Amino acid sequence: MRHPILISLCAAGAFALSACEQTAGNEVDRAFQDINVIDETNLNDVMLTASDPNEAVSYFQRAVGEKPDRLDLQRGLASSLVRAKRNTEAVAAWANVTKHKDATHADHVNHADALIRNNEWERAGDVLDGVPPTHETFKRYRLEAMIADSEKDWKKADSFYETAVGLTTQPANVMNNWGYSKLSRGDFEGAERLFTDAVRQDPSLFTAKNNLVLARGAQRNYALPVLPVTQVERAQLLYTLGLSAVKQGDTTIGQGLLKDAVETHPQHFEEAVRSLRALENKAG
């Protein structure tokens, strides 16, 4: 009499065990999916930072081809194209990103950045004009300043540069850009101050050191400022000063600076040697 009950219990137990196994299996599948998502995210980050730019482009092109609706992958492709200096493709990629339903104001700013890199200044200005003024970021104001520079609207450029400097904890590069803007418009003293500030913020920024020497040379100040420099950098700065002196018509001073550059450089300084020979031949 108890056999049907026993069979029923066994059947119920088997069903419960099957359900438990199915539930456990689903949980395992979900766990593996989560792991895959984490691994993919980490790989995306690695490709964006440490990878060769063109390898990153290939990776994200494949990923976007497989999952064309993924906004993070589209951004990865666009950023990688910028890093690879494939500017025309980067413009198109960021334009695609901005068409996505979840695109942000930052995506439009990145599109403007790509346009500037591709020398499409007017289009970049139009894109930034479409970004609400409430989107106040360092990158937005830095690009606005560069566009104002291109239009020679110095008052607006100074205002945007000043705002950009206040929105970052690492202002050296934007100070260098602002200084170059001052240099291009003939404000050599203002340029010198900004280049000095840029070097103070980032002593490794050689571009700012070289620009600082240019600003001093334009004022016929041919003494090297006190700067943290390597021997090679010192030779290159003397070379820049020498060329600046020659350009100002101070040929004798320029020759002396070029000789100092050749003697200071720890190896053969071909560019300085060539310039020095040209001056000596001209004088002869």
TrEMBL record:
Keywords: Signal, TPR repeat
TPR repeat ranges per the UniProt record: 172-205
Signal peptide positions (record): 1-19
Descriptive protein name: Flp pilus assembly protein TadD, contains TPR repeats
InterPro entries cross-referenced by the UniProt entry: TPR-like_helical_dom_sf (IPR011990), TPR_rpt (IPR019734)
